[in-house]
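A common beginner's mistake is to predict each chain separately and then try to dock the pieces by hand. The better habit, illustrated here, is to supply every component at once so that their relative placement is modeled jointly.
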Amino acid sequence: MSEMQKTIEIEVLRYHPEKDREPHRQVFEVPFTDDMSVLQGVQYIKDYLDGSLSFRWSCRMAICGSCGMMINGIPSLSCQTFLRDYYPARVRVEALAHFPIERDLVINMEGFIEKLESIQPYIIPKEERTLAQGEYLQTPEQLNAYEQFSSCINCLLCYAACPQFGLNSSFIGPAATALLHRYNVDSRDGGKAERMELINSEEGVFNCTAVGYCSEVCPKHVDPANAVNQNKTNSAADYFLRFLAPKGGAK
Amino acid sequence: MKAPLKRSNAPIFWALFGAGGMLSALFGPMLVFITGLALPLGLLLPADTMSYPKMLAFAQNIIGKGFIFAIIALFLWHAAHRIFHSLHDIGIHAGTGAKLLCYGSAMLGTLIAAYALLAIGF
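With all components supplied together, the output reads:
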């Protein structure tokens, strides 16, 4: 470190389940350059200051969804959040809110994985087709209906942003609902009735109080709040009209 | 999800909440202005706009009756739902008791309004 080297303080939430009774904070002095992301900051800590610091990361370009953290209290991808936006003040980095901490900045995402499985996030074909019948064709309009919801990278920032998920972790939540919606509105899919049972259930969309912060923090502009609220309408319509139209919708 | 899914009855309360919210957004400010500002301060409207005979005639008219009923009942259901969910938000997970109290008072207000509007005659 030369004398001219600027530094920035990074305050990290530490938690080692076998040693610590509860999470605590530790401050590191990290050399700072204009082009450094917060992820590069914590990588510096791991490489040069404290090798025991644990965090998830992979692509460094907001595609993999691994490096979500609370940065100064805001759910963010650490790879696309830059230290220069905080310099010379201290930056506070914590594990994503509302999830159990496995170690340091690594959260336990098992609950989300179960939810992801439960929505059947794959196309359940409407009709069996043989290879000879060729591919399923879609118009640009049919693509538009679901395309934005398919951009989810499962980074869980929306869950860290959702106060209702924080109060009740059985709520299916923003990302899972957005993905569920993505398959329900796909013209090739025939699994809507099965998935709507989840939407209509006590774990479903009515846990949402339309805060909208999920869509604000989404790094891929998915707008999960929109998916949730469209399905409140779908679910309510089904609730009242199911006796008129026995086909479709849950029991 | 391991446990079998239980269908939520939320759509009933959500629909009443939504209807009340829409109505209060459309008519609330106007009603506050008329009853709270314009008449007491003698602005714009004739002084006897809300005189007893006029209000009685309004409440006895079938459309007036419907208007008064919808305003009172749906505003109450809207408020009950909002209060119930706000309790949850500030960390009071009062469950069935709070639910009964919130929606019960809305139900009570609805019944009283219906009774009074019918009792006043046509």
